[in-house]
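pinging the channel bc i need a second pair of eyes. not urgent but kinda urgent?? the chain im working w is below, pasted from the shared doc
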Amino acid sequence: MQDKIAITDGIWPNVDHLLAPEVVAQLAAQAAEADREGRMSETGLALLREHKWPGLAVPTKFGGLGANLLECCAVQRKLGGADPGLSIACTMHLGSVGVWNEHYVKQPDMTWVFMEAVAKRSLIVASAVAEPSLGGSVNRSTLRARRVEGGWEVTGRKGPLSFAASADLITLQFQSEPDGETPSKVLVALVPRSLPGISSERSWNTMGMRGSGSDTLVLEHCMIPDPMVVFQGEPGAAADGDLVAGIVWFCLVITSSYLGLAETALGVTRETLGRSRIAHLDAARAELPSFQAIVGQHAAALLTLESACAGLARAMDAKQDPQGLLAAALGLKQHAIRVVPEALGAFAEACGGIAYARSSTLERLWRDAQAIRFHPPTPVPVAQYLGRRALGMAAALDLDEAAPGLRERGGA
């Protein structure tokens, strides 16, 4: 559903001043090559740096573009429609920078230094949270740290990590080893990518989102000084305000990226159905009610997502409590996991075998759309959390099949 399509008018603000149409067109021109090569478009990333995109969510007083969450989501839709892989990587950057802004509004502190550096120097922030052995949890880590004088020594791997090779800063989540007196803690540090002991390993070779640069971060006896640690918390807990705000931000910007992908897919579908004719009916597929109904059914589902995503972003911008919006944001992401791939599949099926060709834009977008299932918090812990909340039970965004921790905490 491109901007020129009337059914989306009024849902999203015009953000051409934040990401110009000509820049979007240049990004789109690089996407197919990035997919073929399985690498992030360096040209695309350079364009974003040149046009100050890294400072999108940074207030203007700190040198940024001053976009609110609604505008950030609208920009992500444009990116997702142009280069889905690059867009997904950019979502991880926004997830960090957006939370810094949310934190600073509530608690003015030195966070402004990070934001100013990102905006004025067009720095890219990678978010090293995801791990394959956490069951989709976002508040634990298998990356262990050993306490040393003045900081933490970390050895291990983090992946998949978008911007692993090209980030300037890394929001690194790890977990301390427990000792006899102190329990294990989840720690988050903001570290420069150039810190000794940090390297990357090219490992990203997937069906879709091949241009996201989601390789593996390698840490070998990496010393993280105490001043770089910006958060400490209990593993599995989800009550921290910054963590909750971060999850809400992520759910909205990631959904926006996939809505942009769907927008482009619908544009390709419209063009294909308009020129693909059914010979014995002497009509284009787009002229036939059966094909119109297929597209309309999935357009309706996508419009529901568009409206809900924009509405939640407006609620966050109105400074509603993120804790009160958490379930809705998770529900939105959960809904998108079903709606977007189904829409892409239906569009491709309506277009016929031509959509299955490797040369087809729809084929590439269909592959990219499948990745929506794998962004943490993933469907299983989210469904468990929402189910427990709906039943009035204690809930945390953490797989807990026997629920001993939930029983201990009690309450809803």
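so Residues 77 and 256 are 5 Å apart (CA to CA). and The radius of gyration is 22 Å. — does that match what u expected or am i reading it wrong
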